[in-house]
Design goal:
single chain, alpha+beta, three-stranded mixed sheet, 2 helices, elongated
Length: 73
Amino acid sequence: MKADTHPEYHVISVKMTDGTTYQTRSTWGKEGDTMSLDIDPTSHPAWTGGSAKLMDTGGRVSRFKNKYAGLGF
């Protein structure tokens, strides 16, 4: 194998939407960083079987609705 071709693999914390955290190994971030999830198995409709709360964190949904408001859907 070539040296320095693989990313660093380290332990991070993952914070779920309900506030619980767990530790896993990842190439994301740095050692000890915390990844906060917007959607996870406790809130996604594919796992919960119901309708989910729509979280428009980047304003994309509202921009889409404004752009296509006059199409008559």
